Amino acid sequence: MTLRLNRRRFLGTAAASAAATSLPLRASAATPFTMQAAWINDAEFAGYFIGIDEGYYAEEGLDLTYLSGGPDVIPESTIIAGRADLALTTPDTTIKAIAEQGAPFKIIGAQYQKNPIGIVSLVSNPINEPKDLIGKTLAVPPVNVISVNAMLALNGIDPSQVNIVPYAYDPTPLIQGEIDASLDFTTNVPYTINQQGVEATSFLLYDFGFTIYNDTVVVTEETLATKRAELVSWLRASRKGWDENFKDPNIWPPKWADTWFAGTGRTIENEIFFNNAQQPLMESPAGYMAMTEEGIDANLRALSEVGINGTRDMFDTTLLEEI
Amino acid sequence: MAVENSGRWRGLRTALVLLAIWEIVGRLDLVAGGALPGISEILIRLWVDWGDYPRHIWATLYASTIGFVIGNALGIGAGVIFALSPTALRLFRGVNIAAFALPPIAIAPILVLTLSGMAPRIALAALGVYFVTMTATVIGLSQADSRATDVIRAYGGTRWDILRRVQFRGALPSILAGLRIAAPNAVLGAILAEFGGGGRWGLGAYLLGSLGRGEPDRLWGIGLVATLIAGLSYGVFALLASRTIGATRAVTLNTAVPDAAPVTSAPINRIAITLGTIALPFLVWWAFIKLTGVPGLISKTPLGVVDYLFFAPTAESAQNRLLAALAETLPITFVGMAAGLGFAFLLAISSRLFPRAIEAFMPVALVTQTMPLVALTPLLVLILGRGTSLTLWVTISVTFFPAFVTLAQGLALVPRSAEDLPRAYGAGRWTEMRMVTIPASLPYLFAATRLTVPRALLGVMIAEWLATGKGLGNLLNQSRGFLDYGMIWTVAAVSVLLSVIFYQAVVIVERRVLRRLGMATAE
């Protein structure tokens, strides 16, 4: 903890103005609360950035600390280690950890009603559906290999017919033709590729039977017992942030060029595209962050195809009801 | 002096020629459809992106500097204790070998799990520094001029007086030489931990964020900046060393874990110390977990790993996955190591036959050693693909240079008189090589082998993690994603253990062979 504070202080002095604005707003007498995001700062977390910048969390009495994620951050580890109260995760790894290792997690909300990951390929060598993958080289982050295998099996394809290699979230091999397709966020990567002057196409795993959420809101059972009120406050403020964001998805990304998005190496246009593309994947008749019974059921069914045996009691929808 | 200067100019000239070739090849997009941009394109991109850099560079410098300071404090402190107490040195042999042999990639995920914020970066940087500085300190202190220590003793000086007035002064050149190697190690360690540790700032984090952009010119730019920082840190201490002591030393240090002189003591004592040597690394592991206070679900003690691997319900699946991964990783590690050593040996021999050509090649070799592997590998994928050849090239590139330097030093030390003998009998250069130089370099070949063991495993695992999706590297990466903490610790423990065992095996073969040939171990 002291190390992190030292780092903050260091960064603050090293780049006073810009770094300072990226620090979480701190209101006095508010309850400290830490969230671990699932990825580096991008439009995927716009709702939370708005909540912090516009003081929605502060209004709820939360002094929110936001921890960025990245390809090598395992959000669940952060909450087990007690460094964050809440994490955004992928439901397959979370449910696998609960089912197989007895990890004490509960899922209390879901950001994406439809998982944005999909198969991205070039229009010049298009892969429009699972069976097009046969005999092709597909780059997949090692974590997602089971999801891809499940999607292939659901569509009657033997996974050994596809050459799966590790994916480092770099579109270059795809653009260069070294691989035929990659598994990535369809809200984001096709645009990044288009910026390189090459046209990309994609389809969602969700649309081919792998019907899971993404960025599920996960807490430990202990946090659920001791910080229930804060968790409800967090959900309420986050929903407000997302409501605000989608009033006009084009407004917010440019405002964060020098704060949240500084130094990520991506363009603001890319984030605007992302923010627009993710809206249909997040909308739910029950409001943002919701989990419906049909949705939960679809998750459990898809995961059981992969041999991950989740149960309804791993989800707790009662906090959402309290919003 | 004149010869040395002309060599230096030659090096510069070659570097310029290579840069020109790079520029032409890059501009014409000859390599992998533009994956290797021209040097000017990279520099222009660097200029455009420059606004992003200061904070990333600061974060990397911050972690590596603190790690450097901590690692050196530990290294010098431990070195002093070891120099004073042969028992302590013997007791800590296991810990020291482990510190030398552990592949950083295997323990980076563990540090990230158990420590928070900047601490994993600092720890990995400090680890890269500790062994080098500790060894340099022990060697420096034990080489004190016995006449000077006698004078102090004769005047009634204490052990501390000797240490302070003679040994430390005598050890300074050795320690400074150690710091030169330690400095780039700290930078590379910090970047490796950044790459696997999350966080917003740092060159490793920037590299990760930029991977998703598909812009090779920026990736190369980040790689070059990282290389430059690592290279500069070496340069700063090289300059410091030559300014303060007016001496220059070799590029690498000896790879032998300092060994205490054999003491004839009771067998019981010897056995106790041997057991202690083996137990201590595990004790350090256990203490580390207790001190960090991370919950048992995430952090596994040595017993936890044994349980995971042998007694848990999932033990059989864990064993199978581990054995399958080892079967993929070990063969290529040995092949890569042999190829790296062979390449280094050939180069070292050629450097005797064609010294000019090799001198010219050195600056390039030095640069490849300071470029972070995590930055280099994604770029190599675009050129070499994802097959075995990629893994081999990564492994050769990390092993051959240190091995080459050690071998070249060894060859340079062959006594002139020994070389003159076959020549006097009319032997040609090759015959002389075969009969004198190559046999004489055997101790250095062993020293080089010791040095390449952990590096080869590091190279293979990084290639597997980032590119080929096979073996231990991939198992480690996948286990992280699946929250399979038992496997993360198991892979880390097994890879460190393998490195240590292999290192010891080389040491044992080395002692036997050299004793039979009546040669001394090379330092």
TrEMBL record, chain A:
SsuA/THI5-like domain mapped to chain residues: 44-250
Protein origin, superkingdom: Bacteria
UniProt entry keywords in alphabetical sequence: Iron, Metal-binding, Pyridoxal phosphate, Signal, Thiamine biosynthesis, Transferase
MF annotations from Gene Ontology: metal ion binding; transferase activity
Signal peptide: 1-29
One of the protein's GO biological processes: thiamine biosynthetic process
Bilayer-crossing regions: none
Entries under InterPro entries matching the protein: NMT1/THI5, SsuA/THI5, TAT_signal
Keyword NAD attributed: no
Oligomeric and partner information: Homodimer.
Chain's role: Responsible for the formation of the pyrimidine heterocycle in the thiamine biosynthesis pathway. Catalyzes the formation of hydroxymethylpyrimidine phosphate (HMP-P) from histidine and pyridoxal phosphate (PLP). The protein uses PLP and the active site histidine to form HMP-P, generating an inactive enzyme. The enzyme can only undergo a single turnover, which suggests it is a suicide enzyme.
UniProt family annotation: Belongs to the NMT1/THI5 family.
Name this polypeptide is given: Thiamine pyrimidine synthase
Organism whose genome encodes this protein: Meridianimarinicoccus aquatilis
From TrEMBL, chain B:
Pfam annotation, one family: BPD_transp_1
Membrane topology type: Multi-pass membrane protein
Residues covered by the ABC transmembrane type-1 domain: 57-241, 322-509
InterPro entries, per database record: MetI-like, MetI-like_sf
A Gene Ontology BP annotation from the UniProt entry: transmembrane transport
Sorted UniProt keywords: Cell membrane, Membrane, Transmembrane, Transmembrane helix, Transport
Transmembrane domains' residue ranges: 56-83, 95-116, 122-141, 219-240, 271-289, 330-349, 361-384, 390-414, 442-467, 487-509
Localisation per UniProt entry: Cell membrane
GO cellular component: plasma membrane
Family, per entry: Belongs to the binding-protein-dependent transport system permease family.
PANTHER family xrefs: ABC TRANSPORTER PERMEASE PROTEIN HI_0355-RELATED, ALKANE SULFONATE ABC TRANSPORTER-RELATED, MEMBRANE SUBUNIT
Protein name, as recorded: ABC transporter permease subunit
Organism for this UniProt entry: Meridianimarinicoccus aquatilis
